[in-house]
Amino acid sequence: MHAVLAGLLDLVAPRRCAACDRVTDLEKAVFCRACDASIEDYHGVGAVFEYGGPAADAIRRFKYEGRSDLGRTLGSRMADEAGVWAGRVDAVIPVPLHWRRRRSRGYDQAALLARPVARALRVPSLFRCLRRARNTPSQADLPRAERLRNVRGAFQSRPLAGSPHILLVDDVRTTGATLCAATDALRAAGAGEVHTLVLAVRLLGGAT
Ligand SMILES: [Zn+2]
Fold first, then answer.
1. pTM
2. Structural domains of the chain, ranges and CATH numbers in brackets
3. How many whole angstroms separate alpha carbon 120 and alpha carbon 146?
4. What spacing in Å lies between the alpha carbon of 20 and ligand 1's midpoint?
């Protein structure tokens, strides 16, 4: 009953911008026209946006303001970018939070982003495969060398039989240290190729 009701509300509720929450008339839009116009798309493989402006607002709301529902809309934008890996990866794996942080947040944002990506690629999302063994301090405030040291050996993976090709999914990439550490863990567990896809790239030296 609840699911049906939620589905109906989904149909009649106005679509709201992921960044500013204004109602938008754009169909299937993540952002309103104003926000969409000021978003910097990332021109390269492996990311959707440059971090900043409305994209950063949306990510902040998604991660820190309890808006787990934004995972579906933001994840579907990532799914649009994931087409280059269609038929080339065997599974999608989200970069996990440490369980303690997941418990305090109530959800694991990368797992929510990975779901629409996996669905689009018609492969499973293996959200229990990779595990953050250490609760590392937040990367956001650390310089690059510290970040590398901070996350080295932070991840462990269950064994991956048959050298599967993996698409690793996370929300934001800054130095890539976290993705590197997660990739190392997957390779050590038997993964073949490991590709990475993030929602936003934080360009060093850029604003915010
Ligand atoms: Zn907006």
1. 0.87
2. 41-201 (3.40.50)
3. 36
4. 4
